[in-house]
Design goal:
415 residues; alpha+beta; 14 helices
């Protein structure tokens, strides 16, 4: 059934004759439609992968891959636990932290904030905050000096800068002869950081671990221990292993639980976008139906002659399936090459277009990610190419079946 003769004839039918220029034009548009659809699908998914990776990097630059706390949020003897975990597989670093919700006031402005106490000398082991310091230095956080580093949006809202004084108010209260008063403490702004995530830039402040523990009345305890792993994707499994190994005194969580809704939303958007763009590829692929129907109509006499010379209906069907497969394969390969090239160079092409037309797609004063990131996954390329080619083959079945039903006697009666 699958003889080289059918492939040879199929290749002949892809070339135009004087009276079949229109059919060849339709064939070309089918190829271009598949190519453009595959290119768009690969490029868009690569850009979405880039956005997801960039956001994950920014989030994990401020939060931990995993954290260990006690059920009363008072972790004692964190040094012993840190030493125990230093040689644990996949753990690159550990650092203690103290966290609590506070209110920060400055010049009649008040804002709720997450106060995080850190050890500056260990913080680089678990986060990238030192890379995002815009003013000041993390080393300026010294115990007893009550220095504080604010997120850029929080500092802008409060109207403060490095060297200014602010007041931190905790929900805990102090009983005095004058009545019950909230605990408050004056801090000096020693730095400003900007991560590029509004959640952190607007709602987080960093102080020294001992200052935070004293303010929140934790004594020598801390809120927990943050962990950095060599592979962020093994965090759920590692959290389960640590829970079993450390026993019931500790509560272990990981970044996938803390930000699960956010990353699930991104995955859902990727799936929806994949389906929408795949429909474009499907429309282009099913243009092959009209192309082959026109070819079958134009070549009915040729089919009849081939049948009289001994070609079976199955071979005729194979001929037109191969013709459609050639169109689909050329379009898919062209689209895959174009999509890979565009995805690998989108970070260069987009700025060039912006300079050429004087526009900016992601304004820096509106979006924190002002450039289009791209991250090509070869698995996406293989999957998209396979589905586009499969749709092309599916589109050939009906026209090929119609061609196999041509009756030689009726077609050659008036020839």
């Amino acid at each position: 059934m699958f003889k080289p003769l059918t492939l040879y004839i199929a290749l002949r039918y892809t070339r135009a004759k004087k009276r079949t220029h229109f059919i060849s034009f339709i064939t070309l548009t089918s190829i271009l439609g598949i190519a453009l659809g595959v290119t768009a699908l690969i490029t868009v998914l690569s850009v979405m992968n880039g956005f997801e990776s960039e956001l994950r990097q920014r989030i994990l630059g401020m939060t931990s891959h995993a954290s260990i706390t006690s059920f009363d949020n008072r972790l004692q003897n964190w040094q012993l636990l840190a030493e125990r975990l230093d040689n644990y597989p996949h753990i690159l670093g550990t650092a203690p932290f103290v966290e609590g919700q506070v209110m920060i006031t400055a010049d009649r402005r008040v804002s709720g904030s997450l106060l995080r106490g850190i050890l500056p000398e260990r913080e680089h082991q678990v986060s990238d905050v030192v890379k995002h310091i815009k003013s000041g230095d993390l080393a300026a956080l010294k115990p007893g000096s009550y220095g504080i580093i604010l997120g850029s949006e929080l500092a802008r809202y409060l109207g403060v800068w490095q060297g200014d004084k602010i007041t931190v108010i905790t929900p805990q209260v102090t009983t005095t002869p004058a009545g019950i008063l909230p605990r408050l403490k004056r801090f000096t702004v020693v730095g400003i950081f900007e991560v590029g995530m509004y959640e952190y830039d607007r709602n987080m402040a960093l102080v020294h671990l001992k200052d935070a523990a004293k303010l929140l009345r934790l004594g020598d305890a801390v809120s927990g221990l943050r962990l950095k792993l060599d592979d962020v994707f093994i965090a759920p499994q590692l959290a389960r292993d640590l829970t079993l190994k450390l026993g019931g005194r500790y509560f272990v969580t990981d970044w996938t639980k803390l930000h699960s809704n956010f990353f699930k939303a991104i995955q859902m958007e990727k799936r929806v976008m994949f389906i929408i763009l795949l429909l474009i590829v499907a429309v282009a692929a099913f243009n092959i139906v009209s192309t082959l129907v026109m070819v079958v109509t134009d070549k009915r006499s040729d089919i009849a002659i081939l049948r009289t010379q001994g070609m079976t209906p199955g071979a005729v069907m194979t001929l037109f399936i191969q013709l459609g497969a050639i169109i689909g394969l050329v379009g898919t390969l062209a689209g895959a090459i174009g999509g890979v090239a565009l995805a690998l160079n989108v970070e260069t092409i987009v700025p060039a277009i912006e300079r050429l037309f004087g526009v900016h797609f992601l304004a820096a004063d509106v979006y924190y990610i002002s450039e289009l990131p791209s991250e090509l996954h070869w698995q996406d390329v293989y999957q998209i190419s396979a589905m586009a080619f499969a749709l092309s083959l599916l589109a050939t079945l009906y026209p090929a079946w119609q061609a196999s039903k041509v009756k030689p006697a009726e077609e050659l009666r008036y020839e």
